[in-house]
């Protein structure tokens, strides 16, 4: 609000919005003249007579502008005291805009004052209209700078809060992943999670039921950040609490789905793949609930996808799931993955894609599970120049 607009405001608003100016001058008549002029144009003022008093007052109260003389010793005209004061003020935080006044102005003093952080320069005796124009301009600039600083501070706090949230979500997500993956004779199973800067809701697990049966699952929550990580924590608890080799897979998925529907937001859902591996029978029975179909790559380079199942979890409380079965042969490689792998994009927006994933898998089908996992992630990272926009999760099963 400009001083001229104050007359249209209420009395409390005028008091709150009146610009405050600190006048620093050792001449009482100058102080009185400036105070009278500025009061008549909607400003409130306070006056001090020395550099020491100025520093004391400005440390205690806030002002919109500092209007200060450069000369305080009556027997000098160098402006040195004022210039030294400017040097000191420049070391302080949150100093308002400064306009200097001197009756001994020279170009050299003006230049040095400007270098000391002065917004503008006025000679004594001053012209009222010119002085008021300068003050109004400098106060407006000062308020703009303060608003910009406040916005920057708010954005900085928001950024730190976001980083804190991401860190917490990452810790939750890391805690969901198995530290040691159980194995069966004749098989090698490895898992990997390549995290992005923005945490998502990827999850994988391998559960040991007995000496011949494992449960394998991979999932991805729609969304990112803390909500996705917390929802994935909910899924992990449900999986580990209900999973058993005695229950049919379709019944298990129906129970997990019903449980999630009671605890999930309307705009959330989970893609999920769950399988049970029977080691001695080389049989993989599975349910795919809307997840990227895992790949079974055969030793001869042919492949098929694991697609049987149903819809994603967490949307419809009552739904049925189909159970798929695939027999594994020596040399088969099974790759479970989330869309963070295939959607890793380059600078042109081109995704890594499932065709590249299949190509890498086909070229490395004779490699062990660890090598396949590393080569897939390496190829996706090279394609995206390591700019992961979503978490990329892999679970690789090799049959020997």
What does this structure look like?
This protein is an alpha/beta fold and 400 residues long. It has 2 domains: 3-151, 3-Layer(aba) Sandwich (Rossmann fold), CATH 3.40.50.2300; 177-399, PPM-type phosphatase domain (Phosphatase 2c, domain 1, 4-Layer Sandwich), CATH 3.60.40.10. The chain has helices at 11-17, 28-39, 51-60, 80-89, 107-115, 128-176, 225-242, 249-261, 339-342, 353-363, 369-384; strands at 20-24, 44-48, 65-69, 98-102, 120-123, 187-194, 201-210, 213-221, 270-278, 283-289, 295-297, 303-305, 309-310, 324-327, 333-337, 392-399. Strands 7, 8, 9, 10, 13 and 14 form a 6-stranded mixed beta sheet that branches. It has a 5-stranded parallel beta sheet with strand order 2-1-3-4-5, sandwiched between helices. Strands 6-16-15-11-12 form a 5-stranded antiparallel beta sheet. A hairpin with a 5-residue loop joins strand 11 and strand 12 (303-305). The longest helix has 49 residues, at 128-176. The radius of gyration is 36 Å and the shape is elongated. The termini are far apart. Residues 11-15 have low confidence and may be disordered.
Work out the count of structural domains.
2
Q: Stretches where pLDDT falls below 50 for ≥5 residues?
A: 11-15
**Second rung of CATH, namely the architecture of the largest domain:** 4-Layer Sandwich
What is the top-level CATH class of the largest domain? Alpha Beta
CATH superfamily of the largest domain: PPM-type phosphatase domain
| Estimated helix fraction | 25-40%
Whole-angstrom Rg: 36 Å
- Structural class of the helices, strands and pairings? alpha/beta
Specify the number of helices. 11
Which fold name is given in CATH as the topology of the largest domain? Phosphatase 2c, domain 1
What kind of sheet is the major sheet?
Answer: 6 strands, mixed
Write down the overall geometry. elongated
Question: How many angstroms does the end-to-end distance come to?
Answer: 78 Å
Percent of residues in β-strands: 15-25%
- Output mean pLDDT: 88
Can you write the helix and strand succession as a string?
Answer: HEHEHEHEHEHEEEHHEEEEEEEHHHE
Number of strands: 16
